[in-house]
Amino acid sequence: MSIESWALFGAMVLGLAHLTAASFAFKAQVGNTYTVGARDEDLRPTGVAGRLDRAQRNFLETFAIFAAAVLMLEIFHRTGWWLGEAGALIYLGGRVLFLPLYATGIPWLRTFSWNIASAGLVMVMAAVVWPA
Questions:
Q1: Using CA atoms, how far apart are residues 132 and 112, in angstroms rounded to an integer?
Q2: In sequence order, what are the residues at sequence separation of 6 or more whose Cβ sits closer than 8 angstroms to the Cβ of residue 14?
Q3: pTM for the full model?
Q4: Can you say whether residue 18 is alpha, beta or left, with left for phi > 0 and alpha for psi between -120 and 50 degrees?
Q5: Whose CA is closest to 118, among 77, 54, 65, 43?
Q6: 61-104, pLDDT tens digit by residue?
Q7: Are 41 and 34 in contact, with CB atoms under 8 Å apart?
């Protein structure tokens, strides 16, 4: 498996971590009775649970683009070039940092980690079309 594919797998695991963290934090906030019920009251997560929910939604905004770019690298046999490999690892590293930084409410570092991940995403996308 290519480094880019391993980074995609890591991002998939990170997606599960986002989902789990947001889900358990919300359950801790509202209790089991609400989370196993019909949820007719439409309660919204707040505090840490709200931050984890927003972090998960933020992750999902870029994950599909990252997955598509890595799959294009694989389909077009463009893996193994430094731009794609470095970009994939930078994307994953930035996204890994983003979750705890958002959960703890650290604004500037959180934004910086998002910028790092976005730069990595652009690198992977560029590797799809840039001549090697």
A1: 29
A2: 59, 92, 95, 96, 99
A3: 0.93
A4: alpha
A5: 65
A6: 999 999 999 999 999 999 999 999 999 999 999 999 999 999 99
A7: yes
